[in-house]
Amino acid sequence: MSQAKDLRVKDVKELTKMLMDEQKSLEKYMNDVYKGKDKNLVRSSSFRKNIARIKTVINEKKFLEEK
C-alpha cells in the first residue's frame, strides 16, 4: 500500500505508470474473483483506494503546476 506522502515525492510520469499498473492488477484480480479463483473481495477495495490515492496526487501536482 502506498501512502500519499510517499507518492508526492514521485513525478507525474511515475505516478501515471503506477496508476496503470494498479488498474491492470485490479482488473486481473476481479477477473479471478468472477471466475471463482479468489473469494476475498476486501482486497479489491485496497486496489481501489490505491488508485484513488494515486489519482489524487496526480491532480494535486497538475493543479500546482497551473498556479
UniProtKB/TrEMBL annotation:
One of its GO terms (molecular function) is structural constituent of ribosome. GO terms for biological process: translation. Gene3D superfamilies: 1.10.287.310. Pfam families: Ribosomal_L29. It comes from the Bacteria. GO terms for cellular component: ribonucleoprotein complex; ribosome. Keywords: Ribonucleoprotein, Ribosomal protein. Belongs to the universal ribosomal protein uL29 family. This is Large ribosomal subunit protein uL29. It comes from candidate division WWE3 bacterium RBG_19FT_COMBO_34_6.
